[in-house]
Amino acid sequence: MANDLRNIFSWDKAIACGCQPSHYHYTADRVPLGTYEAVLGFEIWAKKIMAINCYFTITRTYQKIQLTVYCKEAGRYMLACGEIDFVSYPTQTVYVIEVRADQKKKIRFIQAQMKY
Q1: By CB neighbour count within 10 A (0-12 exposed, 13-18 middle, 19+ buried), where does 16 fall?
Q2: Rounded to two decimals, what is the model's pTM?
Q3: Is residue 3 assigned to a domain?
Q4: Which tens digits make up the pLDDT trace of 65-115?
Q5: If DSSP codes are grouped into helix, strand and coil, which group holds residue 63?
Q6: Into how many domains does the chain fold?
Q7: Is 31 part of any domain?
Q8: Which residues is 78 bridged to in the sheet?
Q9: How far is 71 from 73, CA to CA, in rounded Å?
Q10: Domain holding 75: CATH number?
Q11: C-alpha to C-alpha distance for 40 and 1, rounded to whole angstroms
Q12: Which of 26, 53, 96, 98 could form an S-S bond across to 111 if both were Cys, CB 3.0 to 4.6 Å?
C-alpha cells in the first residue's frame, strides 16, 4: 500500500488489498498503555459510528493494535489532544502515539504526532 492521502478503506476493500484487520488487537488486556512509536499501516471506516479505525504496528515489539479516531466536527477525524486529521495524514508512517484506559478499562487513543 502506497503512502497516500485519503487512503481509508471500506472493510471489503481492505481485505481485497491484503490487509488483515483481524490480526490487530483493540481490547484493554491486549493493547499496551503508554506512549510509544508505531507505524500506521492502514485505516478502515467504522461501520456503525462516524469514526476511523487505525491499524498500527508498535515499532519496538511489532505488536499489532487497533485504535479509533472519532469524527469531532464536519468531516474532521481528530484526537482531542492533537492537530492530526486522520483523513488526510499518511499511512506507512511512524507516529508517536499515547494510549490510556478510562475508568471502565476501555482503550482511549489520546494523542498522536508524526515522527520526523
Answers
A1: exposed
A2: 0.92
A3: no
A4: 999 999 988 788 999 888 899 998 999 999 999 999 999 999 999 999 999
A5: coil
A6: 1
A7: yes
A8: 85
A9: 6
A10: 2.40.50
A11: 11
A12: 98
